[in-house]
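Limitations
The structure tokens in this dataset are predictions for the assembled complex, not deposited experimental models. Users should treat interface geometry with appropriate caution, especially where small molecules or nucleic acid strands are included. An illustrative entry is reproduced here so readers can see what is and is not provided.
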Amino acid sequence: MIKLNVNGRVHDVDAPADTPLLWVLREWLGMTGSKYGCGAGVCGACSVHIDGDVLRSCSVALGDVGAGKVVTIEGLSPDGLSHPVQKAWLAHEVPQCGYCQSGQIMAAAALLKAVPKPTDDDITAAMQNICRCGTYQRIKAAIHDAAKGGAA
Amino acid sequence: MNQINGLGRRGFLGTVAAVAGGMSLGWNVPAAQAQAANSAATAAGGVEVGIWAVVMPDDRVIVRIARSEMGQGTLTGLAQLVADEMDADWSKVQAEYIAPEVNQANKRAWGDMSTGGSRGIRASVEYVRKGGAAAKAMLTQAAATQWGVPVGECSASESVITHKPSGRTLRYGQVAAAAAKLPVPDNVAVKQPSEWKIVGKGVKRLDTVEKLSGKLIYAVDLQLPEMLNASIAQCPVFGGKIGSFDAAKVMGMPGVRHVLRVGDDTVAVVADKWWQAQTALKALPIVWDEGPNANVNSASIAKHLESGLDAKEAFVGLKQGDAEAGLKGAAKVVEAVYGTPFLNHATLEPMTCTAKWDGTNIEVWVSSQNGDASLAAAAEAAGVQLANVKVNKHHLGGGFGRRGQQDYVRQAVLIAKQVPGRPVKMIWSREEDMQHGFYRPITMAKMKAGLDAQGNLVALHARLSGQSILAHLFPSRLAGGADPVQFQGWNKEEFGYQAIPNILIDHAMRNTHVPVGFWRGVNHNQNAVYLECFLDEVALAAGKDPLDFRLGLLGQMPKLRAVLQAAADKAEYRKPLPAGVFRGICANYGFGSYTAAVAEVSVSKQGEVKVHRIVAATDCGYAVNPDQIAAQVEGSFVYGLSALFTSENTVEKGRIVEGNFDTYEVMKLDQMPKVETVVVPSGGFWGGVGEPTIAVAAPAVLNAIHAATGKRIRTLPLKHHDLSHA
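Predicted assembly:
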């Protein structure tokens, strides 16, 4: 059993230490908000926070998380809507198919925590997640809006 | 509408409960939960008023949706159309899928479920609006009957019926039960566009909230009691088969339950968890019988296509005047050869399907662009009648044409049949998805134009050579051997430049063993690159401005001319740009809509391209939701410019080389240009939205790159070209 802190709750996980965190979340803990897109740390659909840093959970082994505090899209806000990024996403109608948006939102939330008033360059540097529907223009606008405290 | 009027209520009693269950739990209700919710939902008293809307006692209106939602906004647009005709209170409107087997059992009362070709709204508008109007008529009649007044004295607005002389009111939820007992009226009039209140407005999508919290259950997220998981490997060479595999090597690995043959070309590992299945699959020794295609590679395919460029035999797509004579007599001839590669759809949710076989019935859970086809595929693979199939539709994590094919549904069913009694969720790895697609077909084009002494374009010959989608997917739909899809944008109906006196457009079919399919925008994409870039070459050879040159040739398609002008106006085409920034333009007519784009681009001396701004104009006739149209246009530039800059699939030893997004590169946020959408709905027709704009993305940027560098790029993607310039 490996102890894993997710969204403030400690779980005992009966999985090998080399199991990717993504699949631990999805299959051992039943939390499917973090998505499988590439399994290679390229697309970002599986992005979660570990101790405040955004990481690609498909490329983090369970055994390497240790005492790290994992926050997933399910734990970003109590109601799934009230984080400033979620509010801005709703106001700007960002999602199309929505599949990448858990990861996009987690990446944007981490950016705003580190850089509360990001420039365009900050945003393009931080937001490296793939969206095949092409919602990037709205993602950028929504991040600026969330930084201003707008869209509430 | 036969589809509505031919039906009584009897067939729908069972669905009412399911609808209400769907409401309380969201759309993607696993069957087990829906069953559990049925009693509570029935007690809640939602009733069908006609077949397109269910009215709840609290006045919520649940609009039935037959098409699939994959991000394109069709679900919201269709709900707008029904709700507007109903005069429903939009703030209380929700939507839910009608199940394919319910559609089938009711003579497909809800029409075609296929969601492709940008038809989701435009092919549904007639019957869904009549469905909404019928529901309103029934609700109003029920109120009039309750009051004992003539129905002509009653009016409806915002889900409230008013008896005008007395001022009495009843809400939809109060009369729904009585309305549901009335016959569905035969002849209902739909509103004039001037009467629309919800259609034409950029109302918010109905399906956003669950996409922000991770709560939306895509097919890949499904969890069912007793569920097992499967990962598969297909023969890497298309057309090859399983030789042998050594199941014993992995049967002892954690969680592994079965190693199965799936058809003659696929091996599946079934385990408690998908990650265990995938880990074991990677360790499983498999010997493939690669078959006759193991030596095919991109170079041999290129040679095959090149042989078509001057071949004598070709299918004619459009002929007017005598192009050969026109070219012979021309003062100047311009000639160029273009080419585009195979492209995977690369939906971010990989192919996935869950299936459960109970010995008699097959049930599947799937993200599909065609619920009807999923039903049929599951029945065929399971060897049962349609009546023994249940299909649970989930929102798609991207479609783009890929999920119209049902290969993954068949596989899931073939797996489930070998594991009776337990649901099995099959998920393809990204690599499997990348290397087993239905690729955008590889084509080339030899373009020839003849100019007279005054620089008028007097003859055009476009010779396509390349792979046919229909020959691969639907050979029965070939017309005398020809594939009309190849001529998208270039046929009599769609080709805008028919003012050119002599035209020949033909296609030398050159098929390969690589599976091809409908990739968002389909052959419009390749054809628009060939034609719209070549027209730029011809305009420059004629010493004319590319915009003026096109405007002069578009007299026979005034709506395309107008949309091109609208884009040019918005982009202030006649005004100079800042130093170092250059424009490119193009136009296209496809999927029933007129589109045009102006790109503003700079290219550094080192060859780095920056797209500063795109102005894109669309005339889709009637605009159901302008904000969602803008979203589709913005996204179209991401899809179209990914194909321009970086994406391609290549072939080596008969298999696709690229396995993941590290080698199949797609656009990210840092490359996203500012896209300004100009919606110019001229009315009178319903055009598509999801696809048409993609065609104009690449040519506009390519033409701007030429303006910036003097380099004419004729083969994609751009990453293979050196754009550095003096």
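Some entries come with short summary sentences. For this one: Helices of chain A lie at 21-28, 62-65, 84-91, 101-114, 120-126, 136-148.
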